[in-house]
C-alpha cells in the first residue's frame, strides 16, 4: 500500500446504552490510527435501539438484565468486569459500579441525527460524550438537560438542541434509518459497515479491525464478515 491512500466510508450502527459499542468504537479508532495515513475514513453514527419500548423513567439494570437474559448478580458482575477490562485496553473507562439504570435512548439518537447534518466530526464528538456520560459518569442519556449540555460540549448549538428535544423533530428520519438497518438484517450492535458492503459485527479486537481495514482499502476480494 506504499504511496497509496484509500478513503473509507464507515457507518457505525450502535446504541448509546450498548457497552460493547463503546468497546468497538475504541477498537475501531485505534485501528484507524494504526493504518493512517495510508487509510483514512469518515465515520457516520447510525441509530439502533436495544430497548425501544423502555419507558422514560428507565429500569433498574440488574432487574432488566435478569429479565432479558436470566443472569444472576454474580454473572452480571463477571460480565461487567470483562467489559471494563476490554474498554481499558482501548482507552475507554467504564465505571466499576456499572450503570444504575437502563434508559430510553431515542432522543439521544435524534440529536445524533441532527449532529451528523451539522458536521460528522461533531456527531463523533457527541457520540463519544454520550457513551462517557452513561458508562463512565453514570448519567441519564434520556435527560434533556444532560443532552443539551453534551451537545454544547460537542460544539453544537445548545439552544437548537433544546428546541429539537422539545419537539419531535428528526423523529421520523431517525425511525426510518433504524428500520433501514434492521430490514437489512442487523439485529445486534455494534455493526460496522464499510463502504456500504463490508460488515464487521461486535466489539472486535483492534487487530481484527486493522486487518479488515487494510484488506478493504487494498481492494481485497470478497467482503469481510466477522461473526
Automatic annotation (TrEMBL):
Residues 10-213 form the DSBA-like thioredoxin domain. Signal peptide: none annotated. It comes from the Bacteria. It holds the Pfam family DSBA. SUPFAM superfamilies: Thioredoxin-like (SSF52833). One of its GO terms (molecular function) is oxidoreductase activity. InterPro entries: DSBA-like_thioredoxin_dom (IPR001853), Thioredoxin-like_sf (IPR036249). This is DsbA family oxidoreductase. It comes from Variovorax beijingensis. The lineage of its organism: Bacteria, Pseudomonadati, Pseudomonadota, Betaproteobacteria, Burkholderiales.
Amino acid at each position: 500500500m506504499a504511496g497509496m491512500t484509500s478513503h473509507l466510508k464507515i457507518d457505525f450502527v450502535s446504541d448509546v446504552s450498548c457497552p460493547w459499542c463503546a468497546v468497538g468504537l475504541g477498537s475501531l479508532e485505534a485501528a484507524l490510527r494504526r493504518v493512517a495515513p495510508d487509510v483514512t475514513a469518515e465515520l457516520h453514527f447510525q441509530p439502533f435501539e436495544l430497548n425501544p419500548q423502555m419507558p422514560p423513567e428507565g429500569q433498574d439494570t440488574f432487574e432488566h438484565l435478569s429479565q432479558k437474559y436470566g443472569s444472576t448478580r454474580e454473572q452480571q458482575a463477571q460480565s461487567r468486569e470483562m467489559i471494563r477490562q476490554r474498554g481499558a485496553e482501548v482507552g475507554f473507562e467504564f465505571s466499576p459500579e456499572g450503570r444504575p439504570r437502563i434508559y430510553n435512548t431515542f432522543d439521544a439518537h435524534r440529536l445524533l441525527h441532527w449532529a451528523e447534518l451539522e458536521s460528522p466530526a461533531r456527531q463523533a464528538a457527541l457520540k463519544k460524550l454520550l457513551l462517557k456520560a452513561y458508562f463512565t459518569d453514570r448519567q441519564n442519556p434520556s435527560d434533556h438537560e444532560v443532552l443539551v449540555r453534551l451537545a454544547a460540549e460537542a460544539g453544537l448549538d445548545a439552544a437548537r438542541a433544546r428546541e429539537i428535544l422539545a419537539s419531535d423533530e428528526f423523529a421520523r428520519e431517525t425511525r426510518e434509518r433504524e428500520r433501514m438497518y434492521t430490514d437489512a438484517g442487523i439485529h445486534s450492535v455494534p455493526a460496522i459497515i464499510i463502504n456500504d458492503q463490508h460488515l464487521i459485527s461486535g466489539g472486535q479486537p483492534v487487530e481484527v479491525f486493522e486487518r479488515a481495514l487494510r484488506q478493504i482499502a487494498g481492494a481485497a476480494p470478497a467482503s469481510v464478515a466477522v461473526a
